[in-house]
Amino acid sequence: MRATKKAICWRLFLCSFLFLESSSQDFGGQTQFICTSVPKDMDICAATLQNSVPGEDLKTTVMQLRETVLQQKETIMNQKETIRELTSKLARCESQSGAEPGDARAGGRKKEAGTKNTMGDVSRGPADTLTQLSQTLQSLKQRLENLEQFSRSNNSVQANSLKDLLQSKIDDLEKQVLSRVNSIEEGKPGLRNETEQRGRVESTLTSLHQRITDLEKGQRENRPLDKFQLTFPLRTNYMYAKVKKSLPEMYALTVCMWLKSNASPGVGTPFSYAVPGQANELVLIEWGNNPMEILINDKVAKLPFLINDGKWHHICVTWTTRDGVWEAFQDGVKRGSGENLAPYHPIKPQGLLILGQEQDTLGGGFDATQAFVGDLANFHIWDRKLSVGEIYNLATCSSKAQVGNVFAWMETSLDIYGGASKWTFEACRQLN
Q1: Nearest to 23 by CA among 63, 67, 69
Q2: Rounded CA separation 63/69 (Å)
Q3: What would you give as a GO molecular function for this chain, any one (predicted)?
């Protein structure tokens, strides 16, 4: 047992010696030997243990200091690694910020803050842009054919000359589209200037829409002010119509309209009504693969409408604040109903009613992906719930059909923006 104690003591002595030696080297000093007198009758091991306490404290302090230094070194290394990683990412971001739109698309859809997509609904790829341009050109051609028929029936020399001029402009646009197709097929050398080219094409299209609209104005004298339709030929964030008057506070309502669209996915937003502090006070929207929905104060009800078949359909939605009861009618037939849609919340006044776009802010914040594509006509609003018979009269274009007492469909009640066009509404004539 005593031999064991002596062994332990010698180990402590050696450890103390080595520690002091290493400590002196760490701090730049020289090795020192500490000699302590021990009484003759005292146990050497006990004396060693007793006198080792200050050394143990020093050892603990030094070890803590060394641990702190090691931790700081590790922290510095981690920070250096983080700095290198952030520097690398910053370099990549700087290189991409100077890249062309075509390069940014390689990483997926990128929509920078503050920018507006004015020509596409989902993708900004060249193929999608060309498809949309083709659709626009087809729409313009259709309108010119209608003008040609009108000019033939009315022997209008001025209409003929304008038609020829516009036809020439459309031919030039088609050449531009064909040129872009060729450039894509030859390795996409022309895509570097895509933004500039797109701007020129948009400007030309806007000018064409305006000139055709001016030409169509000559027909307004030959039709009543309510016998017209609005046409939104493609998804943009600049084609819309604004109702000149606001809506009053309403505790019940009926909204009816004629729609024609074959847009996919979703026909978009036929109308949206926003008030200060609430952009979704009253909205009708069919976005993406979702069914058509009506929103009141951000509360949602899914509607059983199927209308994107390229044919005219008459739809009506009624609602009362009492229990939030709603009903949906398509082509004069009730298709669905429900309750608890914004119950006891009246529709607020002093807002903005927009046709063709969904408002993210009061009167703005339009998103091309939510824009309405197609034709819209006979949009009416009442501050009461219409009866089944009244809705049927509207859907069948009966002479007994009423007009909205809150908003009635009149050309003089709308301001048109972005080239959305007006044309004679034919659906009721076909029914009668």
Answers
A1: 63
A2: 10
A3: metal ion binding
pLDDT at position 196 over 90 = no
**Is 303 in contact with 318 (CB distance < 8 Å)?**
no
Residue 233 pLDDT greater than 80, yes or no: yes
How far is the CA of 155 from the CAs of 147, 150, 162, 172, 220, in angstroms?
Answer: 11, 8, 13, 27, 17
- Please tell me the distance from the alpha carbon of residue 395 to that of residue 374, in angstroms, as a whole number: 19
Domains and CATH numbers, the chain: 228-424 (2.60.120.200)
* Tokens encoding 15: 């450890």
DSSP string across 108-151: S----TT----S-SS---HHHHHHHHHHHHHHHHHHHHHHHHHH
Please give the Cα distance from 411 to 243 (Å, whole number). Answer: 10
Greatest alpha-carbon pair distance for the chain in Å reads 139
- Report the distance separating Cα 314 and Cα 393, nearest Å: 11
CA distance 279 to 351: 9
- Output 242 or 192, whichever has higher pLDDT: 242
User: d(Cα 364, Cα 241) in Å, to the nearest integer?
Assistant: 12
Residues 6+ apart with CB under 8 A from 375: 229, 230, 231, 232, 258, 259, 260, 261, 312
Taking phi over 0 as left and psi of -120 to 50 as alpha, with beta for the rest, 293 belongs to: beta
Is this prediction's pTM over 0.70? no
What's the distance, Cα to Cα, between the start and end of the chain in Å?
Answer: 121
Q: Could you tell me what percentage of the chain is helix, strand and coil, using 3-state DSSP and rounding each to the nearest 5?
A: 45, 20, 35
* Non-local CB neighbours of 84 within 8 Å, separated by 6+ positions: none
Peptide bond just before 304 cis, omega within 30 deg: no
Predicted confidence (pLDDT) at residue 398 exceeds the cutoff of 70: yes
AA identity, residue 290: N
Q: Which residue has the higher pLDDT, 349 or 9?
A: 349
Residue 164 has pLDDT above 80, yes or no: no
Quote the tokens at residue 107: 């990483």
For residue 385, what pLDDT band results from cuts at 50, 70 and 90?
A: very high
Radius of gyration of the chain (CA): 39
